[in-house]
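Slack export, channel: ligand-projects

TW: morning all. Re-posting the request from yesterday since it got buried. We need the structure predicted with the small molecule present, not the apo form. The ligand is magnesium ion; the SMILES is in the block with the sequence. No rush, but it would help planning for next week.
GE: picking it up
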Amino acid sequence: MRMLLHFLKPYKLQTFAVLAALAVNLLGVLLVPTILANMINIGVSSRDFDYIVHQALFMLTAAVLSGAGAFVSNYFCADLATKVGRDIRNAVYEASLKFSGGDFERFGTGSMITRTLGDVNVIQQAITMTIQMMLPVPFAAVIGVALAWSIDEQMGMMLACFIIVVAIIAVVTVKKAAVIFQKLQRFIDRMNVRLRESITGARVIRAFGKEEAERKSLDEAFSAYADSAIKVNWLFATFDCSSFFIMNLAEVAVIWLGGNRVGAHAMQIASISACVEYAMLILFFLMMAQICALTLPRALVCLERCRQVIECPPSIADGPGTELTPAQDIVAHFGNASFRFADASEDTLHHINFFCRRGTTTAIIGPTGSGKSTIAKLLLRFHDVSDGAVEVCGTDVRDLTQRALRTRISYVPQKAWLFSGTIAENLRYGKPDATDEELWHALDVAQSGFVRELPDGLETCVAQGGTNFSGGQRQRLSIARALVKPADLYIFDDSFSALDFKTDAALRHALATEVAHAAVLIIAQRINTIVSADQIIVLKDGCIQGLGTHRELMRSCAAYQEIARSQLRAEELEELLGVDVELEADEVDAADAVNAADEVTVATEGGAAVAHADVHAAAAATDAPAAAPAEGGAPATEAPAVKGGE
Ligand SMILES: Nc1ncnc2c1ncn2[C@@H]1O[C@H](COP(=O)(O)OP(=O)(O)O)[C@@H](O)[C@H]1O
Ligand SMILES: [Mg+2]
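GE: finished. pasting the full token output, ligand included:
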């Protein structure tokens, strides 16, 4: 309620205008029966034509005023409700922009959509109905009874009794309906979630022939809603008929009492019709009010749901800083950072330590679920570390505004997402004033030559979510979008996985010069993508298993060797190393070979000398015909063939 007042505050004047117009309308409506009674009682019975004309003019004025009041109040009331609805929607949306990933998950996408659209609609309707149909009721009742009382005391008293009875029935019905309406809103959420899932996953459902199961599950959600809605309608129907019954009863009672009172000369004949009209008017108002009142509990639930979003303190708050020192050599730094998702029982990342330097490429490789994307999310501050610190350009990300932080980072998310519009609009997302040349350049670097072949080029339409492009095309477009944005740190989260090997290589080659001024963080699953990185982080179960160049890791990191062995054939490994080290199928890996050989010096920096030592060591230790695979043309080892992507 407090929140609603807050949203009504900017429209104080308009609210008062609506109420004033409503009062004029009400007064007009209530005056007409009394004027009519006077006309008949005084004018007709005494045949005073002037009096009749005089009263008729008075009645006309009242009717016109009442009509004007109704028009003004209706118009401004609808206007007010729509504006308040718009403001609440904006507030909900703005609040959601401040949400961290965790906050979003707490509400859920389906519920967020219901809250922004459906819930606000209910609130909007409730505002209109409350102002137009409920606020006038107490006034109508009091004035109506007072006017009836002024005609005849007994009549006024009887009318008051009827009003009290109907009011009691109304309160009871509203209380009952409130409970059901609260449930109803939750069912709408559920329908929304289920429907979204089944529409977006339609292809999977069809591919697995799960239409029947899906239909059943949706039917359950729809039925639960329908059952509750039917219960509410039962209540409505019961109330409706009892109210109509009471209205008719009131009419009969007024005429009966009126007849007696006229017979006793306590009342004039035309006053009966005035009293009947008052009874009907007030009871009708009451009935309308009750129908509105039935929707009020639902509106309150909706209001509460919007409040939850608007007043939800974002778990990630802006820091005070707005300035980053751009010239820093170390662009990003993880200092003993650990992280746990709010709903998880254990840490997803454990004591992560590494630097991303300007002009270098850092790669993260590891199995699915090892926490690679989470590292990117921490850098962008979609989540806050549970322990330790993440620094960008020498400042803790928590000390910066999120805006300042994110202007320095260009990010290609794991799931390539494009907005509906044109390609150019999508590419200009991070730099609105980018020229067409810049866009074409970024597209060329991102190997998006296909755009040149499109008849509309940069103005080609992008469907919602970019579904009119293939996965690989979407990925390349989102890489181009990231490249258009000037940044100190470029993050590519598994952005090369949907690209074929040749495009992947060409893209990395073009990228090398393109982002030489910045630090690059590449998250990958394929070893080919990252062999040339300046440093590679091997992540497993949220722990760094190894950190170094490809060469260093091949020698010292068992986890890395395992990945390499699972993805590469022996000759590819050789090619990558630039030497003819052989990986044996009998699990004698290069690292063991190195350890076994006496003459090997374990170096920390990769280099040709070390590589040579590797060759000798490998040859000595395994005693295998090192050149065999290359000569034979076919892999001599049993190592599994390349596995691309997830
Ligand atoms: N929003 C979330 N809530 C709870 N756990 C999550 C959430 N997102 C990811 N996880 C968990 O964190 C782990 C790492 O996820 P992620 O960083 O996406 O892995 P990767 O990118 O390496 O495949 C996974 O085990 C996943 O189950
Ligand atoms: Mg990932």
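GE: first-pass observations. Residues 579-646 have pLDDT under 50 and may be disordered. Residues 2-310 form a domain with the ABC transporter transmembrane region fold fold (CATH 1.20.1560.10).
TW: perfect, thank you
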